[in-house]
Specification:
By secondary structure, this protein is of the alpha/beta class. The chain has helices at 7-23, 31-37, 56-68, 78-86, 103-116, 132-146, 165-173, 186-189, 226-231, 250-264, 299-311, 327-338, 354-361, 364-370, 403-408, 419-434, 441-445, 449-459; strands at residues 47-49, 52-53, 91-100, 120-125, 150-156, 177-181, 198-199, 202-206, 210-214, 239-240, 243-247, 285-292, 315-320, 342-348, 373-377, 381-382, 385-389, 393-397, 409-417, 436-438. The strands form two sheets. The protein has an 18-stranded mixed β-sheet that branches. Strands 10-16 form a two-stranded parallel sheet.
Length: 465
């Protein structure tokens, strides 16, 4: 949800009280320079398995096999080299990835994961609502805590503004350890008060073995079915989102991110936990976990997106819920379409933020003129943040292509290099296309002047939307 529908009112407040933080974090790197500086030859891929770092020969054999499974693309070599030049996050092998293509599938998988946990459950979420869905999670987590499974929760202070304190107090009373990320009240936040920085991640980890990440918060809006509204007009809007379940070495990288946030937010000391040794490979997917925080490390998702678009050779199929991009992203998409890449973007047509919708539409004309195909999703409120490129590179996570995600939020995405998973992503993309309306260039360029002025005006405030 777009900062809990408090975009405009909250950011008036933020500008007054936190203007120095916004001004201090206003620029994104020039990705063309990062690409130029990244090595293009002699790169030794560093791939980690459940048993440790692979030898250069093993890593090369693995990537060569992947390259042979798809049409030639620089995404597997040059883009990967760029990513490795800006992050220490390892590429891990032996992962099994399960696509969870909606809220109902995600919650089913989450409940199964929680029930199966025997040692520890770590949950990090931007929003945890005190509704039917939130209370179901709370009841199950309290049940596991009573069984001796340590439950640890990080929730965002702004995202959970509407959630009463009693909801979290009930969990604390049951033994659950809880951290409020960057409390709104500076008196409870300590010396490192950063109101503009929010924890937009959604992570669930059980026993350091299985994890679920994506764009889905804990809220009843994800529990509904898109078909109910077709039968009954006043049924709640269905929120269309995507998560993935990860089993394998990549889970340890998510665990590191969770514990790092816990420490930085001065959470209660957690007891040392010994997990059973990993038992072999779970699947065939190569996965890199990208966790971002404001400042230097928050550049990584931006560099990842711009560079993968830059190196794409066949197809770019992008789905994003709040599309207010930097000019470098626009240029990369325009250039890709210009060199014959099939560029399709699915964006929301139904929204929880009219301002964000107007801002996203400001970019349509330039993209359409370049040959980019744009679709607005009409059957649900689209909240997914996914991409599949050249039928081998995929990403699922919490990062929107807007300035909030790219500059001020903590985010997390998984990059998956796997042909079979990319096929699943393509099928999901096609399904979303079926529920979307294509924006036609002729019709768009003949839209009313009032709409054009409104989109232009709202876009002046794009860094706060």
């Amino acid at each position: 949800m777009k900062q809990m529908n408090i975009r405009l009112s909250t950011y008036v407040f933020l500008v007054v009280f936190s203007h120095s933080q916004i001004v201090g974090c206003t620029s994104l790197p020039k990705v063309s320079e990062v690409i130029d500086e990244a090595p293009t030859t002699g790169v030794q891929r560093q791939i980690v398995s459940s048993k440790g770092l692979l030898s250069p020969q093993q890593s090369k054999s693995l990537t060569d096999r992947l390259k042979r499974s798809v049409n030639p693309t620089d995404v597997l070599e040059r883009h990967t080299a760029v990513v490795e030049s800006v992050t220490d996050c390892p590429l891990t092998k032996g992962n099994r990835i399960s696509l969870l293509a909606d809220g109902q599938a995600t919650y089913k998988a989450m409940f199964k994961l929680i029930k199966a946990a025997r040692i520890q459950i770590n949950l990090e979420s931007y929003i945890i609502e005190d509704d039917e869905t939130g209370r179901k999670f709370a009841d199950l987590l309290l049940e596991k805590q009573a069984q001796g499974v340590q439950v640890n929760i990080i929730y965002d202070s702004v995202g959970c503004m509407k959630t009463p304190a009693a909801f979290f107090q009930r969990l604390r009373d049951g033994g659950v350890q809880i951290v409020e990320f960057n409390p709104i009240n500076p008196l409870t936040a300590g010396t490192d008060w950063e109101l503009t920085r929010r924890d937009h991640r959604k992570i669930l980890i059980a026993d350091n073995k299985v994890a679920i990440i994506g764009g889905i918060n804990i809220s009843k809006v994800y529990s509904s079915s898109p078909f109910k509204r077709k039968r009954k007009a006043n049924s709640p809007i269905h929120w269309r989102d995507t998560d993935i379940q990860i089993e394998g070495p990549a889970v340890a990288e998510l665990q590191k991110l969770f514990l790092d946030t816990w420490l930085k937010q001065k959470g209660p000391k957690l007891p040392a936990v010994k997990y059973p040794e990993a038992s072999g490979e779970k699947g065939s997917a190569l996965v890199r976990v990208i966790g971002s925080t404001p400042g230097e490390t928050n550049r990584i998702p931006f560099i990842v997106y711009v560079s993968v678009i830059f190196f794409a050779e066949h197809s770019i199929h992008l789905t994003n819920s709040y599309f207010i991009p930097d000019e470098q992203i626009i240029k990369a998409l325009v250039d890709a379409a210009g060199r014959g890449v099939d560029v399709k973007i699915i964006l929301p047509g139904i929204t929880d933020s009219k301002l964000a919708l107007y801002a996203q539409r400001h970019y349509y004309s330039e993209l359409l003129r370049a040959g980019v195909k744009i679709y607005e999703h009409k059957t649900s409120l689209l909240h997914a943040k996914t991409a599949v490129i050249d039928k081998v590179w995929s990403t699922v996570g919490s990062t929107n292509l807007d300035f909030l995600s790219l500059l001020t939020n903590d985010e997390v995405n998984a990059i998956i290099l796997n042909r079979e998973f990319a096929v699943e992503m393509e099928k999901m993309f096609d399904s979303d296309l079926a529920g979307s309306k294509q924006i036609q260039r002729d019709e768009w360029e003949n839209r009313p002047m009032l709409s054009r002025v409104r989109e232009w005006f709202v876009n002046l405030f794009k860094r706060f939307l």
